[in-house]
Amino acid sequence: MVNKRDLSPASFIGVAKKGLISFGSGQPDLPPPDAVYQILPEYRDFKYGLIQGLTTLRVALAKQYPGSGKDDFVVTNGASEALDLSLRVLASLNTKLPKKVLLAQPYYYSYPHLIQFSGLEPVYLQTTRGRIDLDDFRDKAKQCCAVLINSPSNPTGRVESVETLKEIEKITAKLGIYVLSDEVYKELIYVRDNYLLSGPHVVTINSFSKTYAMCGFRIGYLWSRDKTFVERVIAMKTHSSMNTNILGQEMALEATKVPRQFIAGQLKIWEQRRDLLYQGLFELGLDVWKPEGAFYMLPKIDRPRDFVWDMYTKHKVITYLGDWFGAPGSVRFSYALDVEKIDEGMRRLREYLSGRK
Amino acid sequence: MVNKRDLSPASFIGVAKKGLISFGSGQPDLPPPDAVYQILPEYRDFKYGLIQGLTTLRVALAKQYPGSGKDDFVVTNGASEALDLSLRVLASLNTKLPKKVLLAQPYYYSYPHLIQFSGLEPVYLQTTRGRIDLDDFRDKAKQCCAVLINSPSNPTGRVESVETLKEIEKITAKLGIYVLSDEVYKELIYVRDNYLLSGPHVVTINSFSKTYAMCGFRIGYLWSRDKTFVERVIAMKTHSSMNTNILGQEMALEATKVPRQFIAGQLKIWEQRRDLLYQGLFELGLDVWKPEGAFYMLPKIDRPRDFVWDMYTKHKVITYLGDWFGAPGSVRFSYALDVEKIDEGMRRLREYLSGRK
Fold it and tell me: Which end of chain B, N or C, is less packed with Cβ atoms under 10 Å?
């Protein structure tokens, strides 16, 4: 499956080798709260659910988003489908705005694909050490019908400043263009509380995958105050996938009832891992930013394709090639693995780098 | 939600009124086999699964499709997503064939929407009392890059003859165009065994929704011997929704282990209901075809919009307006409800029709 010319993140999914250490996968290794499984033994439903999503789940979500109601949400097959539907709806709008979407580079590797699948064209923002350049933003946003924001960012771990985010709200409102705000890492911020981008032109995308470690169940959602936009998303989903898995939604509902302590506890674990990996990469003299959120680092690495390939084939360590994230010259490390494994991975990394010509 | 100008099938989803009789919904009312719930109490997985689908499930499916292997399948969010992904992949192919898809009218109401969402254009086949006209097929297939076949058909209940299906295989093979064969009702045929359309140019679409009453869990799949096509579907799903709900897939795997007797038992129930509803509509003098498969009838009805609206608002009976299925002048009746309810629904129908001017 994995070959050196490709090295796509998807090609590593499901790879199993004895003694493998993976800094690859973008999913929590610790399980969801027990509560999500407690409803399983008695569960007996089987019929179609509402396309928009389970009402009780949307009511619970509305409590988390100030000024919102259950009708502002659509529950989807992960944040992926929320984004896919949003982009397809954007592409179908009868507007004179250019069919282009602005996004920061480096980016989550699915973004350009999804934008293109929907018939739109990606326009890339310059970033300075992972941060959006507002001058470049002002300039390029004019050529677009929407901007896609991802703070905290996969793969950079950057959290944009509140000032930058407020400025983005203003610029886009003035231009009359949409903001798609992918906030799936909003509960995984080490430096401050999340700043929820908002406004009638904002579509917020989130999921239960990262916060509650429910990746495999594929429960995501979007939130928007634009009624017409929400209706169009529902209309499209009616045909493209119908309701999201009914049992997965009930499990997500249970997750919303779990005390906030669970999230705080997880955050501490992530922070400890971040510090360990950051220290290790820093001591190796690598050029790397200390993550402010999410669970990724993006160090600069010479000959990164050789690095990823050799680390995998010779040292049984998975890392992801930066090229896939619009970051040539870099390699993405996820720290979704326990500290013992991070230590062992770092040991192998040191071994490899010390022998590298 | 329900209003007379719209009367879309989706607007009836989730409608609950005391004493309501629904000939609307296209989902089994009887539960899935018990076995699918038996794995729930011990279930503890949570991580991403393979985008292509659970290996054990694909191995089980391969046993049902002669000459196939697990790599020929992609598990999807219901047949809907299988169809959506197939159409989007078709639209993205670099081919000189016209960007048009041929389908029979009347059609399942999502088809034209999905075709258009993907950037393709629907071309409609004439049917004679619900059957495909092969001369028309030969003529129009030349203008298309794919044909979409749905036998047994929703909403007509028609099963095309084996001769017709074989001819369709031949014509399309000669033209070098794809066949998307939606066979979700393949286990619900009253007149013969299913004829599985096949060939390297055929993409078969199926699901666990109808056969195993698992609609709400959204487990569908596609099967194709065209490796490149399958790879393109996986590549797209990698970004648009990732893996299908892991627990739903495990439940579907359990369904594949249930003895065929379950399906035979269900078929008997469907046949009894069909006979009852057909007899009732026939005795009322309505022009209706006796269904050979699936669980729908499509009688001709004068002023069908008034009929659907009045039956719903005055007699608490849900039926679906034929216009949504490309069948103006008709109304769709599903018989996914027990015989007592069918009897009561027929009583109300007689009452209404006897008082109709």
Answer: C
